[in-house]
Amino acid sequence: MINEKKATQLPFAWIFAVIVGAFILFLAIYIAVKLINSGETEMDLKIGKEIGILLNPLETGFESSKTTSFSLPVETRIYNECSPAGTFGEQKIKISQKSFNEWTDTNLRVSFQNKYIFSKNYSEGKKFYLFSKPFEMPFKIADLFYLASSKENYCFENAPSNIKEELDNLGQGNIATENCSVNSIKICFSAAAACDIGVDYAGKVVAKKSDRLYFESDALMYAAIFADKPLYECQLKRLMERAEQLSLLYKNKAILISRKECNSNLNLASLGSAAGNFASSRDLVSTSTIANEIKQENELAECRLW
Fold it and tell me: How many angstroms separate the Cα of 256 from the Cα of each of 14, 147, 181, 252?
């Protein structure tokens, strides 16, 4: 009877040991995964902040463009998001990196109120290019940044001489104006049908499949080429919100200098109103017309505001 009792108790001891061992193993794996995910989240946020810092040296003066590149140790996706909410809206960056053949997933984003990045919904790779160009209407509003992975090669075919010269001088590794690779994203400035993106430079329209994006300067033309339509329109809305506030500042400056018998007489109220009522890139024509008139008047004014 004693031997039979021991025989029946032994399997229960083994079962108990297996259960406890499995629980300990599960707990160890769970903690390890939590620590890895926590580290990945921290790294994703850090990279997002560093990209924001990297944009600072690219901020330009007037009538110039700058470029740079940066590399990451693993395959990375840079998600570009925009929100028009608030006074100046927000530029948001979300980072996802490949770990154990899977993409890290975090809802955390790095936000900036004074940055304007134009790109696809997300760019993927290890090396990324950035170049910037100032946007004026009629005064400088902000620097625009164009982001693309080194995997995304752009070919500007038959570009106007000023665009070709600027891009050639830029010397960015994923942009070419001639001798383009077969897999390049083709940007045509003519009626050629075999292009991915069509640019009507005179009519100031960028065509992408069924989308039509309107622009009023070379800075916005690049933005329309590199960005998806929802992002382009959102960033434009943010830029116009900034233009509205800057119009108010220059209007106050005009009042101050008028007290010193130095009048400018610029119609900044109309510009501020047009910028404040801005709804989509279709409104750029009317806003740009007002801005060009103010620019000419400022250049002829006895006391220039900028």
Answer: 89, 40, 56, 6
Does pTM top 0.85 for this prediction?
no
Model pLDDT, residue 47: 60
Residue 143: C-alpha distances to residues 35, 63, 66, 223 (Å): 39, 11, 10, 11
What is the per-residue burial (b if ≥16 Cβ within 10 Å, else e) of 199-217? Answer: bebeebbbbbeeeebbbbb
| 104 touches 79 (CB < 8 A) | no
Contact between 110 and 49 under an 8 Å Cβ cutoff? The reply is yes
201-231 pLDDT, tens per residue? 999 999 998 899 999 999 999 999 999 999 9
Cα(237)–Cα(277) distance, integer angstroms: 10
**What pLDDT digit, counting tens, does each position of 90-103 carry?**
999 998 888 888 88
Unique residue bearing structure tokens 């170049």:
131
CA atoms of 26 and 21, how far apart (whole Å):
9
pLDDT higher than 70, residue 54: no
- For residue range 228-279, list pLDDT tens digits in order: 999 999 999 999 999 999 999 999 998 888 887 788 789 999 999 999 999 9
Angstrom distance (rounded) from CA 80 to CA 93 = 5
Q: Contact 272/247 with Cβ under 8 angstroms?
A: yes
Q: What is the mean pLDDT of residues 135-164?
A: 95
With residue 212 as reference, give the H or E element that holds it. strand 211-214
| DSSP reduced 3-state for 143 | strand
Look at strands 122-136 and 117-118 and give their pairing. Answer: unpaired
In the chain the first and final C-alpha atoms are separated, in Å, by 104
d(CA 198, CA 180): 16
- Domain boundary assignment for the chain: 12-149, 153-227, 235-300
